[in-house]
Amino acid sequence: MQNRIELTATVEREDTLRYTPAGLPVLEMWLRHQSRQTSAKLERDVVCEIQAVLLGEAAVKLAGTMAGNMVHCSGFLSQRSLRNPRLVLHIEHVEFVKG
């Protein structure tokens, strides 16, 4: 079973590119999503901020270019680490949204 998450959001801030102890490039960022959704036949404004991470070559390629831009991304949710249960979006695909 695959549970994909798709989200259009503004990259509020982006950390400096770092590398894991195994040498994998990691780019952490915070996404701000705003939309209007229908739930139980009622319209609702949705605003949230979610931490996201981009790994590998995409992280190297996009480092320093994300902050302030609107993106459409997809990936999966996972806990931040074994000791930290906070959810993080692991981005597997990202594209810039033209404004």
What's this, in brief?
This protein has one helix spanning 57-62; strands at 5-14, 18-19, 25-39, 42-55, 70-79, 87-96.
Folded structure, characterized:
The chain is mainly beta and 99 residues long. The chain has one domain (5-96): OB fold (Dihydrolipoamide Acetyltransferase, E2P). Helix content is 6%, strand content 62%. It contains one helix and six strands; from the N terminus they run ββββαββ. The protein has one helix at 57-62; strands spanning 5-14, 18-19, 25-39, 42-55, 70-79, 87-96. The chain has a five-stranded mixed β-barrel with strand order 1-3-4-6-5. A hairpin with a 5-residue loop joins β2 (18-19) and β3 (25-39). The longest helix is centred in the middle third of the chain and has 6 residues, at 57-62. It is globular and about 50 Å long. The termini are far apart. The mean pLDDT is 95.
Helix-strand layout with pairing:
Elements: E1 5-14, E2 18-19, E3 25-39, E4 42-55, H1 57-62, E5 70-79, E6 87-96
Parallel strand pairs: 4-6
Antiparallel strand pairs: 1-3, 1-5, 2-3, 3-4, 5-6
